[in-house]
Amino acid sequence: MVNRRSRRLGEGRSPGDPGEAGPERLSGVAESVGGTGETFRAGSPAAVPRWRARRLDFIVVLGAAGYAAYLSGTLPFTLQADIAVALPLALVVAGTIAVWPSWQGVEVDPMTVSAWAPWAVLLVSTVVWEVVNYLMAPRSEHPTLSSVSDHAMSSRGGKAVFVFVWLIAGWALLAGWRRWRR
Predict the structure, then answer these.
(1) Domain ranges of the chain
(2) Distance (Å, rounded) from C-alpha 164 to C-alpha 62?
(3) Which candidate in 66, 68, 76, 90 could, as Cys together with 164 as Cys, close a disulfide (CB 3.0–4.6 Å)?
(4) 8: closest CA among 104, 102, 105?
(5) Using a CB cutoff of 8 Å and minimum separation of 24, what contacts does 156-162 make?
(6) What is the DSSP letter of 139?
């Protein structure tokens, strides 16, 4: 799928379109990727072929599964667990700092109410539920999110699932951000 930014640059069009610049007519070098016949303009955001992005996603999923298995074996609130949790957060911060300059000059459509309203409703309802349940007693009849997640993560398997979902959600946000720019 070609996004609006690509259309402005003339990417993603077939070479025979009258008046449109195809990839080989654009300035820059067109390269073939590993004999697959796929071409791309050197230096363009679309320069990473789709098969490489899928391979990277596969490697990230395997790495997240292994890391989740490792992290699920740590004891809560120990230095080992704190470092193991802080490491992915530090990688996300470093990755964000690394890609931030590439976002300068990218046009972003203003968000409409229909785009952010469901998220606002979800956030407000979650906060209200959490506060009401926190103030009610006993906790067994009015669980907060933290008490529900503590119960779910009481076993090593439950903890591994939560960590895996957390890592993959973070990767999906970063990968989606990276792919949206293409």
Answers:
(1) 1-47, 48-102+137-182
(2) 10
(3) 68
(4) 105
(5) 156/72, 156/73, 157/72, 159/71, 159/72, 160/68, 160/69, 160/71, 160/72, 161/68
(6) T
Q: Specify the 3-state DSSP secondary structure of 31.
A: strand
The answer to whether the predicted template modeling score (pTM) of the entire model surpasses 0.90 is no
Structural contact between residues 129 and 142, judged by C-beta atoms closer than 8 angstroms? no
Task: Report the distance separating Cα 49 and Cα 173, nearest Å.
Answer: 20
Q: Is the dihedral of CA 28, 30, 31, 33 positive or negative?
A: positive
What DSSP line would sit under 87-101, residue for residue?
A: HHHHHHHHHHHHHGG
pLDDT tens digits, 141-181: 888 888 888 889 999 999 999 999 999 988 887 777 555 55
